[in-house]
Each structure stands twice: as C-alpha cells, then as structure tokens.
C-alpha cells in the first residue's frame, strides 16, 4: 500500500510537503460525506430542519471539493482545501448558533458539535495551512462567544475556555511546524542540488558516488575493495584521477612553499603546519591525516620546539605571520 501511494505521488509530481496533506484530504473528505449523509438519512443526531440543512451543505461542499480534486489533480488541492475547511467551519458555526437559538443546548450534543469545529481546526493545522487554521480558530472562538451571550448558558463559557485555548495552541503549533518544515525542505532541496551538481561534474551515477565515498573512508589506502572499484566506470575514474592530480599538485605547491619557510621540519610536520594554518583543530587534523589525536599532538609539540615557541605563543598566529 505504501509503495502504491509513493508511486502515485511521484506520478502527480507534487512536493513532499503535499504528501501528508493529500493523505489527510483523501481520508477526511469521503468520511465527512459519509457521516453527514447518514445524518440526512436520520440514522443519528437531531433531525430538525436547520440541522439537516447544515449537514446537506456540509456534504455538498465536501463532495464538490473531492470532485474538483479528482478532475483537476492534486496541484489544485492547496487552493480548494482552505476554501473547503473555512466553508465547513462557517456551516458548523451556523449549526451551533441555530441550535443555541432554538434552545437545543443539551450538553452532549453541544460538546459534539463544538468538537467537530475543533477537528476542522486540527485538520487545517496538520495539513500545513497555517492561515486557514488561524481563520478557522477565529470563527470558532467568535461562534462560541456569540452562543455564550445569546443563551447566557455558562456551559458555553466553559467550553470556550477549554476548546478556545486548545485551538489557539493548535494554531501556534501549525505556524511553528510549517516554518520548521519549510526550513527543512529548503535544506533538503539545497542538499539534493549539491548532490546533483557533484554527479554532473564527475559524470557519475549515485551508485558510483556511494562507492567512491566508501572507498574514501577506507583506513588502509594500500588496500581497495574490488567490488566497489568495479562500480566505477572508466569515465568516472578518469575524472576522479584528474581531480586528484589537481589536488595533489596544489598540496605539492603548498608543501614546497611551507618547506622554504621551515626547512627544519619533516614532511609530516609540514603537513600538520599547513592544516594548522587553515584553522583545523587537533581532532580535524587527525581525521584528515588518518592519525590519532595523541600522535598529532606529539608532532605539534615537536614543531613548537623546533620553532622555538614559548607556552604563550600561538602556533597558528606564528605560521600566518611567517607568510608576510
């Protein structure tokens, strides 16, 4: 089932954020139509005329929204879903005010209708429609406040405090979640673009890139994994070797320049000096050179001795000053 859903969403070419929104819509809308049709048939709830009219409007709007979605495709969902949710909230508000005005204020019935209003707020929030959530919450609180003053029934005041505070919290959650998801999607989009650029530059497939990264993490450079190497075609290997030669040429020039400044240092000490100049920490240098932190620390101590530095002298500062 999960594979079928992913295949459908991939074909419809919607963003990852819309995956969950469509799942909510496709579950909530048919269920709403079914439940309010049952009410129209008199299978549950009050069968007074105003309540039945509201249920009919509710079912019609839900059916129209579902029909538009099926005809136009998921791209239209972000437009029709706010309209549908706000319309349903208005209808539910009219139902509450009408029943309150008719004196039908039975606690269980009122609580159920108010809960339906909150469900609409919750659906708006989890569908990542923060502005719709805010509008629905405002309608929700306004309706309960009006019912309280219309009937002078303290029950509406109690429900207003309880459900109103929950609705405000849900609205805030919707805004925060939407912002965090937006930032996360932006990071993922940037990451995907970076990967695509790397693949384009090296003219390789993703499987080749993964094989290359695994080979790069190998601790023993003299050994190689034949299976991983076979995943790299000749064109990819040529590009990698070309880049590696350029990097090696750059490092050779850096070592030569460093050797001219500090002829008394060994090649290993020169490599560590080069990395210290770049601002790397002991741990980062150890990872770069595939050495232990203690080994790098020892070599760094030898460098300080050969350069005649005191405890107060900063090695990186001295190295940078020597370039001038």
Description:
This protein is mainly α and 324 residues long. It contains 14 helices and no strands. The chain has helices spanning 2-12, 16-40, 49-72, 77-101, 107-126, 130-151, 154-202, 206-216, 226-229, 234-261, 267-277, 282-289, 293-306, 315-322. α2 (16-40) packs antiparallel against α3 (49-72), α4 runs antiparallel to α5 and α11 (267-277) crosses α13 (293-306).
In short:
The protein is mostly helical and 324 residues long. The chain has helices at 2-12, 16-40, 49-72, 77-101, 107-126, 130-151, 154-202, 206-216, 226-229, 234-261, 267-277, 282-289, 293-306, 315-322.
Keywords:
324 residues, mainly alpha
**Through-space gap between termini:** 66 Å
SS class: mainly alpha
* Fraction of residues in β-strands: under 5%
Largest sheet: none
Q: What integer is the average pLDDT?
A: 80
Instruction: Compute the CA-based radius of gyration.
Output: 33 Å
Low-confidence stretches: none
- Helices and strands, in order, run as HHHHHHHHHHHHHH
Helix-residue proportion:
over 70%
Shape: elongated
Total helix count?
Answer: 14
Number of strands: 0
